[in-house]
Design brief:
This protein is of the alpha+beta class. It contains four helices and seven strands; from the N terminus they run H-H-H-H-E-E-E-E-E-E-E. The protein has three domains: about 35 residues, no CATH class; about 45 residues; about 60 residues, SH3 type barrels, CATH 2.30.30.
């Protein structure tokens, strides 16, 4: 095996020597290789010059002052803050839409007809129940209790049947393993667990 490598090394060495100082057929090959080398060197210099030209600032460019940089930084911080607020406001919108649908609220439904302006007795508008999110239902001392977040009252509240909502306008009627039932201003609402 070493004889094979030795023979290959000798053949390549002889080919290289013929390319460098051979006569006849090797002269045109040598000239083509030299011409390709020169062409590559010129192209490399052009690319290098183009890169240097791109890195240098344009001739008419004026460096920004520290005041304008500070004003731009403040403007971008305000823009980022508004973006974060918009993202935070939209984070729970899917959950709010499910709650609205389950509670019978239809923000995009047809508008009900209003009473004529000369009507003497207008009934007061009903106030919708607060947004309620039931996290879990458990049984403690034989009573079913739900862990809920109630709009305007707090988070992590333990509610059981008889729990009064927002100044007595509503009452928790029952707690089942899959839902909580409440009465709000005479209307019955069922809130599923997890919504």
């Amino acid at each position: 095996m070493t004889a094979f490598f030795h023979a290959m090394k000798e053949a390549l060495s002889e080919l290289w020597q013929d390319l460098l100082d051979g006569e006849g057929l090797w002269k045109p090959v040598r000239r083509v290789v030299f011409f390709l080398f020169l062409l590559g060197a010129v192209r490399s210099a052009q690319v290098f010059h183009g890169m240097i030209a791109q890195m240098s600032p344009p001739e008419g460019a004026v460096p920004l002052s520290s005041e304008s940089l500070e004003a731009e930084r403040i403007r971008l911080d305000q823009l980022a803050g508004r973006f974060r607020l918009a993202v935070a406001a939209r984070a729970g919108s899917g959950q709010l839409a499910r709650m609205a649908a389950l509670n019978g609220r239809k923000p995009y439904g047809p508008v009900t007809a209003r009473a004529p302006s000369n009507s003497p007795a207008l009934s007061p508008a009903k106030v919708p129940p607060p947004l309620i999110i039931v996290s879990a239902v458990m049984e403690m001392e034989g009573k079913k209790i739900a862990v809920a977040e109630i709009e305007g009252m707090g988070q992590g509240l333990l509610v059981a049947p008889g729990f009064r909502l927002t100044g007595g306008r509503g009452t928790i009627l029952s707690v089942a393993p899959d839902r909580v039932v409440l009465i709000w201003e005479g209307d019955r609402y069922e809130i599923p667990v997890g919504y």
